[in-house]
Specification:
Blueprint: H1 4-32, E1 36-57, E2 60-79, H2 99-128, E3 130-138, H3 143-147, E4 154-158, E5 161-162, H4 166-176, E6 181-187, E7 190-196, E8 199-200, E9 206-207, E10 210-216, E11 228-229, H5 232-258, H6 272-289, H7 292-314, H8 322-335, H9 341-370
């Protein structure tokens, strides 16, 4: 039972994130006047369906099919004229819409994922506060104290890279892998910098010996004495920084891996199986150590991360993904005529086959990683 519950929670989270993504395409299509033939949650055999209201489509009447399918691993929004021969007189066909309208439809899924992630990150910021790269205290006889860092110092850069969130600071600390680092900080409005070398701990992490600062809004937790209360505007800007941090992070890690540079332990590509395994471990740990409330907040955080990842991945210019379709629309705008449907279809077909192959490899790696 301790394993079944988190797996069901993962399927629920995945379903929500996919539903929001497809809803973005659906709303974009409705906005552009494109007829949606089917809006489906899940893949495979049909479990349940109903039809929407009658609409005028190509001189006839038609209804959108809303369906729930057996396997909760995806979904789709099938639009008229998307992957078939186009009737130039059909004003409800996707391919007869303007390039900006089609771009909005293609990007709508990722935009809705980013909107969901922003709302969830903002809610967490308001409910629980957030950590900042600010010195709230120093540990005796560790590098920060030796370098002269003091309570109230606000760390702004590490080796020239800007940091604001404490998570960003810790990531840069992991990247350094125990080598000397240049830290820039602000003290009483003045800029300073020090050089120090982190020390390794028994858990394998690196430390410089500071207690981080925290900002609180004060909904779930009382604001401690001396802590700074965050405003709504502060929560909004911090949420944007969280979004950007999580969007850039995979590319940063990939670039470091390609350059044979140090990356954090456990940083790897995961599929649904691997993510389900990670969530199961996370759920069991948080539920055991902290209780139901913290578990719910952790699941919300996981949902925000997954929604960000799905939105970002679909915008990559990978054949069969929304990003590739946007590239073809961009080329069409430059050439003043569309790319041959046969050529574009072949590119997407090849991309789809490669993605399926990659998904199988990742699934196998996830299974091997989860085995005892």
């Amino acid at each position: 039972m301790s394993t079944i519950i988190p797996i069901l929670i993962f399927l629920l989270i995945l379903g929500i994130v996919v539903f929001v993504h497809e809803l973005g395409h659906y709303l974009g299509a409705k906005r552009a006047g494109v007829f949606v033939e089917e809006f489906a949650l899940g893949m495979g055999p049909l479990l349940f369906s109903f039809r929407g209201k009658w609409e005028s489509v190509g001189g006839d009447q038609a209804q959108t099919l809303y369906s729930l399918r057996m396997f909760p691993i995806g979904g789709f929004c099938k639009m008229r004229g998307q992957d078939e021969d186009n009737d130039p007189t059909d004003d409800r066909s996707l391919n007869n819409k303007t390039i900006p309208q089609r771009m909005l439809v293609m990007a709508g899924g990722s935009l809705m994922n980013f909107v969901l992630a922003f709302i969830l990150f903002f809610a967490l910021t308001i409910l629980t506060g957030y950590r900042v790269a600010e010195v709230r205290g120093v540990v005796d006889d560790l590098p920060a104290q030796h370098a002269g860092l003091q309570t109230g110092d606000r760390i702004t850069h590490i080796n020239g890279r800007r940091v604001t969130l404490y998570e960003n600071f810790m990531l840069q600390l992991e990247f350094m892998d125990g080598t000397e680092m240049d830290i820039r900080f602000r003290r009483d409005g003045q800029r300073h910098h020090v050089a120090l070398t982190p020390v390794g701990e028994s858990d394998g992490d690196w430390r410089i010996g500071i207690y981080h600062g925290t900002r609180f809004f004060g909904l779930l937790e009382a604001v401690p004495d001396g802590a700074q209360r965050v405003t709504v505007w502060g929560a909004t800007t911090t949420t944007a920084e969280m979004m950007l941090f999580n969007i850039r992070l995979p590319f940063t890690i990939l670039a470091r891996r390609l350059n044979n540079q140090n990356i954090p332990d456990g940083a790897s590509v995961m599929g649904p199986i691997g993510m389900a395994g990670e969530l199961t471990g996370l759920y069991q740990h948080v539920m055991t150590e902290h209780g139901i409330l913290d578990t719910v907040l952790t699941m919300i955080f996981f949902t925000a991360l997954l929604s960000t990842a799905l939105g970002m991945f679909n915008l990559l210019p990978i054949p069969a993904m929304d990003g590739a379709r946007l590239v073809f629309l961009f080329i069409e705008g430059i050439r003043r005529k569309p790319v041959s449907p046969e050529r574009e279809g072949m590119v997407h077909l090849i991309g789809f086959v490669l993605i399926i192959g990659l998904a199988i490899v990742i699934a196998w790696r996830d299974i091997v990683r989860l085995l005892p």
